[in-house]
Amino acid sequence: MTTATEPRGNARTADPHLAGRAGPLRRATRWWPAALLAVLLVAPYSALPLPGLLDGPIGSPGNLQLLALCLVFGALATGYDLLLGRTGLLSFGHALYFAAGTYVTNTVMLEAGLPFAASAVLGLLAGVALAALLGAVSLRVSGIGFSMVTLAFAQAGSILVQRDPGGVTGGEEGRAAPADRLPASLVGIDHTANLYWIALAYLVLVLAVVHWAVRSPTGRVWEGIKENERRVEMLGLRPYGFKLIAFVLAGTLAALGGIVYLLLTGGATPQTTTSDFTLSLLVMVVLGGSGTRWGPMLGGVLYTWADHRLGDLAGSGAVAGLPAVLRVPLSQPLFLLGALFVAVIYLLPGGVVRLPRRLRAARTPRATPDREEAPAP
Amino acid sequence: MSTVVLLVLTGLGLGALYFLVASGLSLIFGLMDVLNFAHGALMSIGAYGTWWAASGRLPGAGPGGLGFVLAVAFGTAVGTAAAVVLELAVIRPLYTRPREQILATVGVGLAVPALLSAIWGADARPFPAPDALSGTFGLLGAQVPLNRLVLIAAAVIVLIALKVFLGRTRHGLVVRAGVEDRAMVTALGTDVRKAFTLVFAIGGAAAALGGAIGGLYFGSVDPEQGTSLLIFAFVVVVMGGMGSLTGAALASVGVGLVQQFANYYTTDGLGDLAVVVLLAALLLVRPRGLTGRLA
């Protein structure tokens, strides 16, 4: 007991100012995820307006819908980072497993008339099976070849969905989910809060699974594969199996996300099958910070929020009054997001989540030379 | 018979278009290890530049005769300039971070089509084709549109020009050596980075030319045209073997023909699917592509 407190006492005498400030602060900030979760849980009851961030009070159905979308994409980006940031696999086909969850669930409900729960289980199983099958095939090639094969499979899926075989997928229009098959508490604008909580639960689940997975022995091997695959082989492990586990786990999480997305948007649309969808996930992960615990989630939330709010901004009077040179690019959210993305790559390597650390690092070297220069003369 | 001739020439025309995009992609990847996701955007820039000039906004350029040649030259020049700017402003500062280079081109590839549709609208614009190129000609009983021939001719000229450049000039030698083993060339005292801008300019010019005369093939320009072609260009590059021009030429002919024939004889859209399945199958059998170059 005394030995435990002694070093801290020394530290306090050495620099009481610093320790006194950092101690309680750090203890308090350790619990910020729990505090944030509590805030997010009660958000639907709040009528607090967030001017600039959201249009109207937080608890309004429109805002809850947007927040839920943000959470879902935060979770999707976290799942995608399992491949990109944790295992070093650049997959361009993640949209396929997401869309499998959405489309299979929706189609089973529409065509076979099964209730939602059974359809969702089938949708999830379809996502797992697809990820296992295609992952097993595409992981036989590595590097850019892997990226291209995943892109090719996802493109095949996208073409298939847009071709609308037998009128099952609804082609370019997509198909609305049948309201009579869904539980009544998940349908209609009055129940947006329930959907929001489902999205929040999905996010918490993904964060927990990813956190647990990267800390497991398998996760250590993933890290090794990311750093140096050849060395993992030298240690007597076969990377193929480990990479496949990461691929299937990420695909499963994506398929689950597809089901939540189906509930949230009330239908399946072909936009979710395109390579642009995967690219936007990639942008989210890099924007937030690849390979970090909170970065991809942050990136997903920021991207989704910006995508929607920039659309509103583009249609607003403030932009319409600008001269053409400014107005024309500002009217395109995708242009702003693309430009923002390039800017983040330059100015913030490691993403938004590294921003505080970079700021601290920028301050420290400036302080150290001062201290060193003082005794020199 | 006439259907087969028409399909073969249309397939070759499409393949020529793929080759124009894929040749630059393949060289850039071979030399710099950058998978250029902005290449489709360069193609769109070329298409829009040509369309802009040919619709009478550039003095001297127009939809007919020499005016159209000037318009195509203008579009190609704009695309080349865009490629050089892309390399100098976006790729060059990230030389030490290869993965970020790819990501930055993804960002540019998203932003440029959005910018194009912000300026000229998201809808397809009719492409002003010269009368001399909008007719058809008879071959073995088939009436083949002339623009297929224009595309094939352009692709063949680009292929020969690139072969001559790579095989006969000193810069070409550096590029070839860099594709083979970049570290060794650098170790021998040649700064390969100087070739990067050159390769980007060449690739951009080819893609912009593809966009410029691709407008003839499609009959219209729209902002997403280049991006939708890009996926098939990737397929061609990977099939042909990264960094191999001959491989890219062979693969683009194969992809164009398979796509046309499958689309015609089965249902529409199945050809695109067939190409994708073909890629997956080929990569599993020969992970290094047709020519066995390093993937």
TrEMBL record, chain A:
It is a multi-pass membrane protein. GO terms for cellular component: plasma membrane. The keyword Transmembrane applies. InterPro entries: ABC_transp_permease, LivM-like. Keywords: Cell membrane, Membrane, Transmembrane, Transmembrane helix. Its main location: membrane. It is found in: Cell membrane. It comes from the Bacteria. The chain crosses the membrane at residues 31-52, 64-83, 90-110, 116-137, 195-214, 240-264, 279-303, 334-353. Residues 1-20 are annotated as: Disordered. One of its GO terms (molecular function) is branched-chain amino acid transmembrane transporter activity. PANTHER family: ABC TRANSPORTER ATP-BINDING PROTEIN, HIGH-AFFINITY BRANCHED-CHAIN AMINO ACID TRANSPORT SYSTEM PERMEASE. This is Branched-chain amino acid ABC transporter permease.
